[in-house]
């Protein structure tokens, strides 16, 4: 069993897509083992996306990610890091496969509804960024 971090970004929360996203995870057999709603500060968003701080889109991404509340979840399942990335679809929704969350709901390369960890090391960092061990109930 593997774990990954999923975020429903401010656009997804603002557009009432929380249930839609969760439904896709549950239908796919993925367990939600932790969940919370929060509104990131600039510092918290910068810490989370520190790997992107030199990228040209960083400032805009920070404005977006702090623009409203998000939902953070820990997902659990077999190969759930890759499974979640498959359900999400490509970063750019125009390149995302049909039936993926981003293809169906993203409006922009930035406003793409969901985040998901991309590797075991990033999953470990990202899960611990939002949750302590007592908040994860497997
Ligand atoms: N992003 C953006 N412009 C880009 C690439 C990425 O605004 O050209 C944003 C987008 O919201 C994306 C996030 O930055 O989800 C993180 O980028 P990454 O390449 O890690 O994509 P992801 O892992 O989210 O698919």
From TrEMBL:
GO cellular component: cytoplasm
Domain Nucleoside diphosphate kinase-like, residue spans: 1-138
SMART domains listed in its UniProt record: NDK (SM00562)
Top enzyme class: transferase
Binding site for ATP: 9, 57, 85, 91, 102, 112
Stated family: Belongs to the NDK family.
Protein's name according to its UniProt entry: Nucleoside diphosphate kinase
